[in-house]
Amino acid sequence: xxDFRSLPKVALAALAxxxxxxxxxxxxxxxxxxxxVPEDWAPPGGRIGxxxxxxxxxxxxxxxxxxxxxxxxxxxxxxxxxxxxPDNGKKRKLVDTQLAYESQVWFPDTRPDGFEYHEATGKYxxxxxxxxxxxxxxxxxxxxxxxxxxxxxxxxGCVRNYxxxxxxxxxxxxxxxxxxxxxxxFELSNVDSLKNDPDVTVSxxxxxxxxxxxxxxxxLPGGSQRIDTRFGKRFHVSTKGRIVNxxxxxxxxxxxxxxxxxxxxxxxxxxxxKLRLTLTPExxxxxxxxxxxxxxxxxxxxxxxxxHHASYGQASAPSIYRALRRLADGYPDPKTxxxxxxxxxxxxxxxxxxxxxxxxxxxxxxx
Amino acid sequence: MSGSNLRNVFxxxxxxxxxxxxxAATQLTELYEPVPMPPGFQVVVSExxxxxxxDAKGHTLYQWPVKPLxxxxxxxxxxxxxxxxxxxxxxxxxxxPYPPGLELPEVETRPSCLDVWPAVTAEExxxxxxxxxxxxxxxxxxxxxxxxxxxxxxxxxxxxxxxNGGTLRKxxxxxxxxxxxxxxxxMVPPQFEILPLLSGRMLVTSEGxxxxxxxxxxxxxxxxxxxCARAWKPIAAPAYAKDRGxxxxxxREPxxxxxxFRHQPLYTRVADEFFHSQRGSDxxxxxxxxxxxxxxxxxxxxxxxxxSGIVLADSRGKTVYxxxxxxxxxxxxxxxxxxxxxxxxxxxxxxxxxxxxxxxxPYVLATENAKSxxxxxxxxxxxxxxxxxxxxxxxxxxRVWAFRKRPVYTMWRDRGPGELHGDSWGEFYGYRNGYKAFxxxxxxxxxxx
Lengths: 367, 449
What we know:
The complex is a heterodimer of chains A (367) and B (449).
Chain A: H1 9-20, H2 28-35, E1 48-57, H3 77-84, H4 98-106, H5 151-156, H6 167-178, E2 184-189, E3 197-206, E4 223-226, E5 237-244, E6 247-250, E7 253-260, E8 265-279, E9 283-293, H7 294-304, H8 307-312, H9 317-327, E10 330-332, E11 339-356
Parallel strand pairs in A: 4-11
Antiparallel strand pairs in A: 1-2, 1-11, 2-3, 3-5, 5-6, 6-8, 7-8, 8-9, 9-11, 10-11
Chain B: H1 3-14, H2 20-24, E1 42-46, E2 50-54, E3 62-63, E4 67-69, E5 72-74, H3 113-116, E6 132-136, E7 142-146, E8 149-150, E9 180-181, E10 192-197, E11 200-205, E12 212-214, H4 227-231, E13 232-234, E14 247-253, E15 256-261, E16 264-265, E17 267-269, E18 286-288, E19 290-293, E20 302-305, E21 309-313, E22 321-325, H5 343-350, H6 354-360, E23 377-383, E24 388-389, E25 398-403, E26 406-409, E27 425-427, E28 433-437, E29 439-442
Antiparallel strand pairs in B: 1-2, 3-9, 4-5, 6-7, 7-8, 10-11, 11-19, 12-18, 13-17, 14-15, 15-16, 20-21, 21-29, 22-26, 22-28, 23-24, 23-25, 25-26, 27-28
Helix pairs in contact in B: 5-6
């Protein structure tokens, strides 16, 4: 008899899978067959899920930032503080220095702060054409698509924290993989072919389970994810999409991405989110694009990155806020006309999972 | 479902709280192991922190354990008290990225560590006993210590059972070096531990698994067998274990012994994916086990689900926040109380503007006839322009709810139940100078601990 207590939690979830999987889930034979990738393969029951395990804010990086950051990197809180309050023997008060700086972090404004801000520049960027328009500020993707909307790239492209070398780039992926708050899946249904299908439904859920990994830490297809039907209900959205030559593109939908960092359960709120993902039976990779709510994005940044941690990656919150407001390009406030959201893109990677739908809701405390 | 209804349902099902009447019943407070104590000391069972040592007047005793900060450590090592009469004028620079040497707020009236943490002094003829020893300090004070660590009282405690100076709950990795109440060991078998939460003192196994009880069991008898016992693993008692305090041993079947608490058989939940889980309490008839529950909040409050767990909320369902603050001087004095400097709070709630603070993080106002039924919750008057305690008759004074003698707040961006825009707002994720939600349960992180 198996001693369940001696098994790691991941193993327990795997053992539970046969008991919980719905009728639409494939058998082992079917899963093995799927790995062979037939030309016009369709998932069993027309349904396939993918769980997010890797993400970066969409920054097209060249070596040393030669192309996108010709003027160099931005400076961070530590450098700004040293300029504002030089160590010249003058006696200073905490209220006039540290607390004055933190005031700017938590209640920033758009007045010039005297620090030059280096926006990322160039013709090329990661992303999606979110608005169907071609504007002067738009980019071109590396595969030649035009009208790419990704103004957040201009904001954070020359902030080292947001580049792959930065702390955020390293740690965000770790959080995405390890923290259960951040677990989300996209599930495609009504799929007749993973190669070409003009009409599929794409649903998005927060889920509850660990990622399935091999002994070297690589994430594997074939895991399962139970939908979070209690605290995760607010995350569920659906949209329509189409698959062309193995690439999924979706219609826009408002979407909230859970983004727990060091301690704060924060959320990135995308308006008009679109996916562009290359699909295989085992994985999906590509871009999540949308208009990020500026105030929420800024709040999530500050509650994820204390001034201390932001200093590692030279990310000055007050300076970033000014750039966010300056470059915001979507969803104007009906009263003031000021844009409330900024186009953004995330470079994402997902691995196939079986999404377990609850047949009935039975939690007493959720009634 | 309205917030109040949800609260009633939740309270009835999960019993997060304990009524004050029930708390007064001694059998529902936590038992502790008797330890030898010097004359003049006692054990008081507090409402939230459980049994704590107290002096002859009932003042809770505290220690100041060492805590590493970003650029160095604070606190005290065994036999080496550092809390003294020094009146620090500047910050220490222990919290990056800000440098040391900055003049502290309200420096002219800033107290010394010993002003707010009076040392527990030993009489000339006092003698050590058990873990109680006497430290001869450099300043000539003979100070009592427990387990080697110097003992203090807090000026914030007034009556026996008050534990307003510190808490055993976690205070955040980048929170200040806080003081901890000290007490006798809990009377629990070695297989168990107690997890201090805002909802009470929750029982977990020594491995960290949550402990559950079933409403379908009878006192002293388990009715969980077969499939039930495969999903809810009975906690086995070793052959050498004996009944102790509230813990007894039942025999499920010949030779199979199971722990029971207050005669309720105890289990772990096989499906719990993480330590300290409360997910099992969502299952009908099952609940987490507490050695002692926190007193019920005043009726002005509700309980709400968020996207990460359960929080305390006001009568409209808006999430309630507590404010945390410790300054960066070497003595790490708290700045989270209305008697302490308000410059820190006013910075993170309004950029230094008290009027803005009233809009961003408004106090939770107490209705005219509102009364607390516990020491944990109280009504206080606040001068909103200074943030300090006011006299009731003072013009403009607000009558507000306070938890552990600190006002509680809501947040302007939260528009309705379940919203959570103020959590971790402020320096170092709301632990050092900022706001944290009043977490009762967090299924995704450790915010409730």
